[in-house]
Amino acid sequence: MPTRQVKLSINDQEVQAEEGITLLEAAREKAIGIPTLCYNEELSSYGACRLCLVEIFRGNRSRLVTSCNYLVEEGLVVRTDTEQVRRTRKMVAELLLARSPNSEKIQQVARDLGVERCRFPLEDNDCILCGLCVRTCREVVGVEALGFSSRGSKREVVTPFCEPSQVCIGCGACAYVCPTGYIELKDEDGVRKIWDREFKLRRCRLCGNYFAPEFQLKYIQEKWKIPRETLELCPSCHD
Length: 239
Known about the structure:
This protein is of the alpha+beta class. It folds into 2 domains: 5-112, Ubiquitin-like (UB roll) (Roll); 132-238, no CATH class. The chain has helices spanning 23-29, 83-99, 104-112, 132-141, 173-177, 214-224, 235-238; strands at residues 5-10, 13-18, 53-58, 61-66, 77-79, 147-149, 156-158, 185-188, 191-194, 197-203, 210-213. Strands 2-1-5-3-4 form a 5-stranded mixed beta sheet, with helices on both faces.
């Protein structure tokens, strides 16, 4: 059955989009730029960073919504660069910069949105609660070794019960997707250290380089029924 199409307007441009996709996806299909930070097309949308805000209009009323998780609607009028949108995005970028002033990624986002200085007290917390690490661990890796605890200003990313997670496989995917470098990962002398745990790394059978935690490779082998010998080579030696 063909997918239903809906018509809407984005920046005065008539757009025909597949029902069920988000405003962000519809805009990107038309090469309309919308800034994002917590969005990843391989993960569920979360809307945490608020940078992807757009203004939607129905009749004489308008409101701001996060485009990464707002679905397209028939007849909807969307504007991505109104004065209110620009002002709000700039404020959001300034707040992110105050929370994570040492992050090059946040600094670049702030510059791109015209933030020249931060008016708020600077913190020393590189976690911006974007949720990329939590969603990656749950939706891609499939082990749920991370989660959120508390609410409001005390909200943070932690391992279960704030103890070294026994389900963590040491893959480091959380650190790779983290936009601020908050998650510390260190490989040294054949050992990976992350989230207060140590994981022995495997050497490649051909080149001898360490390339992945033994625990991670065992998890992959058991989950996907991959022969052990296939996992004895690093990606470079597989090519």
